[in-house]
Amino acid sequence: MNSDAAHPRSNLPKAWPFEEAAKVAERLGASGRGEALFETGYGPSGLPHIGTFGEVARTTWVRRAFTRLTGLPSRLLAFSDDMDGLRKVPDNVPNREALAGHLGKPLTAIPDPFGTHESFGAHNNARLRAFLDAFGFEYEFASATDYYRSGRFDAALLRMAERHEAVRGVILPTLGPERRATYSPFLPIHPRTGIVMQVPMEEVRPADDLLVWRDPDGGERHGTRITGGHCKAQWKADWALRWFALGVDYEMSGKDLIDSVKLSSQVCRILGGEPPVGFTYELFLDEGGQKISKSKGNGLTIEEWLRYAPPESLAQFMYPAPQRAKRLFFDVIPRAVDDYGANLERLRADPDPANPAWHIHNGAAPDTAPSPVPFSLLLNLVAVLGSDDPEHLLGYVRRYAPEATGADPARDPLPALCRYAVNYYKDFIEPRKRRRAPTPAEAEGLRALMAALRERAGDLEALPPDDRARAIQDVVYDAGRREPFLDVGKEGRPGVSRAWFNALYQVLLGQPEGPRFGSFVALYGIPGTVGLIETALAREAA
């Protein structure tokens, strides 16, 4: 065990996963236990989504920080609530009519509408595991059905039965009058229909392992065993039961579950356990600042993100400030890709735990070559080329950076970035691209820029790529030092206003903003840029 484990907040890296890990270390120090259990929960009535990725990734980062901080072993349990009753038929499944006849039954007792697994719950569990495996997460999978039926929860269920009224006393004040009249933390499975019943208990007899309840339809009285998977716990009580039975040390949850966390923590204590260290993350917002909702369809799916960017960029988006709301829409993707690339290069130079890439790659940079150009620049290049061929885009980059051969796809990210850039261009840039004619003042500046590029082309193209980009940027500035683009700085030196660069982006590239223009010209080439200017000036003449 590391010496810092006894004082986990000493010399703590300035990174939120380490701050969370220190809390877990303190919890274990107080309990005397030598292994930490991290948990993430999953409702398998639907498919894994971008929030699933975020929760597992963030929990993984805390778990890794815990290992670095303490040297103690830990486990990550991905727990599927697959014994829940099916409340409604999902829209995105085949054979929906057949599923409608199984409403209310546990997901693992319903036939798989896809015909690939023994149950609908098993199908979605397999999708979850494939999803987590695809991203390389280290975890143990747990099925609620297996845990209930195998007896893993039996002792905890009997404890809950012993303290049935105390548990009800916590939950009842949060319910409306109608629901309060029927509430019990136990949901018995109907012996004939197999439906998860939500009925009041006439008797709870832990010594006899028995729940007594009455069928609301016919009034028939039933006796159901508490143990062995014959009943399950209601949602908030179920969460508490799991924490108590398994000894969960850490679990994250969204802001929408704050009240559920409080109630479940109270129930956990009533059972005799200590609720885990919790972490509340903010929810995602759409472009307009509205909460993302699957029913509204105003979100961004993980499949969509991965069409336009590598998975590491999604991790980069998830890492910073998880307790601050993030707008999750397509425009954030290019920034996330470039932020990840920049942080990866920082990691190669300095293994600093404050760097998001340190957590994404568990402290060691992968053996991959850096991209010679940022993703935002690739997007601007493909926008000018108007090509849907990644090889065409890659050819331009090779001319700028001959070392970017793409011969080893496992090490060279550039070919994949070119594919992402083409996809993003076709779906988002091309439909909105509108080149406007230059104003007379803008045309004058463009003519000066074109003349300077032609005059200095030989000298500029002889420079190494980075020096060439900087020298061309100076030429761009010089061409813009004229009215109405002059901007006198604090020291009285004539500078260039943003309006000059806005004109370059709008007139030459057909978009409201863009990259450092010198870098773009260095990549696209001086002859090509001169051609863009000539075309723009022809629009002015027309």
From TrEMBL:
It comes from the Bacteria. A motif ('HIGH' region) lies at residues 44-52. It is found in: Cytoplasm. Its EC number is 6.1.1.6. Keywords: Aminoacyl-tRNA synthetase, ATP-binding, Cytoplasm, Ligase, Nucleotide-binding, Protein biosynthesis. One of its GO terms (biological process) is lysyl-tRNA aminoacylation. The gene is lysS. It is an enzyme of class 6 (ligase). This is Lysine--tRNA ligase. ATP binds at K294. NCBIfam families: PRK00750.1-2. GO terms for molecular function: ATP binding; lysine-tRNA ligase activity; tRNA binding. A motif ('KMSKS' region) lies at residues 291-295. One of its GO terms (cellular component) is cytoplasm. The keyword Membrane does not apply.
